[in-house]
């Protein structure tokens, strides 16, 4: 139940953050806004690291495979794409497409056991849920 609630909170925070970042971009530009997001996220992480625990930063050198360290690079891409999509489509349409794409990619990662994740067997119900989400996009777009 805790994981479920945290996931809901995560989705809500992503939507609010996307709108905030899009509004900041109107004044500063996309790269200044994206940089500000990453800089303030780093500051928060640093403050929490100092107060809540001191995991070894040197342990980053032991991460294998090395490409797993690209999360921050991907995060910059996420920030940019969210800002651009909200600006072009609005928060609701953008969120619907983003979440559906997340669901599809997550299912592909599970099916093929990519990036060190456990491989899961094909499930028609999961595919049906994904197709239902895609149908939801069509219904949401319908005017």
Question: Could you explain how this protein is built, in words?
Answer:
This protein has helices at 2-28, 30-52, 71-89, 91-112, 124-141. With 143 residues, the chain is mainly alpha-helical. The protein has one domain. The longest helix is centred in the N-terminal third of the chain and has 27 residues, at 2-28.
Gyration radius, in Å: 18 Å
Uncertain parts: none
Give the proportion of residues in helices: over 70%
Main sheet overview: none
Strand content: under 5%
Shape: globular
**How many strands appear in the DSSP assignment?**
0
Report the mean per-residue pLDDT as an integer: 93
Q: Structural class, please?
A: mainly alpha
Order of helices and strands: HHHHH
| Count of all domains | 1
Number of helices: 5
Q: State the distance separating the first and last CA atoms.
A: 37 Å
Give the arrangement of secondary structure elements:
Elements: H1 2-28, H2 30-52, H3 71-89, H4 91-112, H5 124-141
Helix pairs in contact: 1-2, 1-3, 2-3, 3-4, 4-5
Brief summary of the model shown:
The protein has 143 residues and is mainly alpha-helical.
Q: Main traits of this protein?
A:
mainly alpha, single chain, 143 residues, 5 helices
